Amino acid sequence: GDSVTQMEGPVTLSEEAFLTINCTYTATGYPSLFWYVQYPGEGLQLLLKATKADDKGSNKGFEATYRKETTSFHLEKGSVQVSDSAVYFCALRSPGGFQKLVFGTGTRLLVSP
Amino acid sequence: GAGVSQSPSNKVTEKGKDVELRCDPISGHTALYWYRQRLGQGLEFLIYFQGNSAPDKSGLPSDRFSAERTGESVSTLTIQRTQQEDSAVYLCASSPRGSSYNSPLHFGNGTRLTVT
């Protein structure tokens, strides 16, 4: 079945550092890929998405590129802020069936001033 | 407009008691999903509704778990004879009629269940 693997956290960075959170996936079809973010005390929010190979999703300075050849969707940001501290979830949704979202285990990001 | 609403936001219950968790999806959203998030883990799929029927119940962990949906709106997740391993955040998500797998799901803030 479909699955998503994320790098384990926590990831601890200083403000203005470069961020990469790795995400790879396994899917039988051609899925859409998503990054969700969960800020402390809040619900899951969509951060960005990409629906086909080589698409780049971007939002709030975060980017991720759909790499079909490496089945990856790594999240990057050039300069993190304290307010980016949150848990980040990579997810996929495959065509057909009931189209449920399949999530990775999440990566906690801690940014210090 | 209102998002996905879940209640209660927190629930503490004694082992062996039954609990009901409620989800109000976004108006007009026909697809509804329940997920469970245990501490330090990812989100586990529990059940999917399309309208009032549940074609995919494959994620329900045991027969103590059940869910229903009425009026293509509110859904209730019931856990009978709760156990400590049921402690988790239970999340509900919805998506509009006719949306494809390219579309994201919209999540509520969840119900944090603690079984003592």
How do you describe this structure in short?
The complex is a heterodimer of chains A (113) and B (116). With 113 residues, chain A is mostly beta strands. Chain A is 0% helix and 50% strand.
Bin the helical content of chain B.
under 10%
The major sheet of chain A is characterized as:
6 strands, mixed
Helix content of chain A: under 10%
Biggest chain pair interface = A-B, 27 and 23 residues
Question: What is this structure's SSE topology?
Answer:
The complex is a heterodimer of chains A (113) and B (116).
Chain A: E1 3-6, E2 11-14, E3 19-21, E4 23-26, E5 32-38, E6 44-50, E7 56-59, E8 62-65, E9 75-77, E10 86-93, E11 101-103, E12 107-112
Parallel strand pairs in A: 2-12
Antiparallel strand pairs in A: 1-4, 3-9, 5-6, 5-10, 7-8, 8-9, 10-11, 10-12
Chain B: E1 5-7, E2 10-13, E3 19-24, E4 31-37, E5 43-50, E6 53-56, E7 65-69, E8 75-79, E9 88-95, E10 106-107, E11 111-115
Parallel strand pairs in B: 2-11
Antiparallel strand pairs in B: 1-3, 3-8, 4-5, 4-9, 5-6, 7-8, 9-10, 9-11
Can you walk through the features of this model?
The complex is a heterodimer of chains A (113) and B (116). With 113 residues, chain A is mostly beta strands. Chain A contains no helices and twelve strands. Chain B has 116 residues and is mainly β. Chain B has no helices and eleven strands. The radius of gyration of chain B is 14 Å and the shape is globular. The model of chain B has no long low-confidence stretch (mean pLDDT 92). Chains A and B meet through strand 5, strand 6 and strand 11 of A and strand 4 and strand 5 of B.
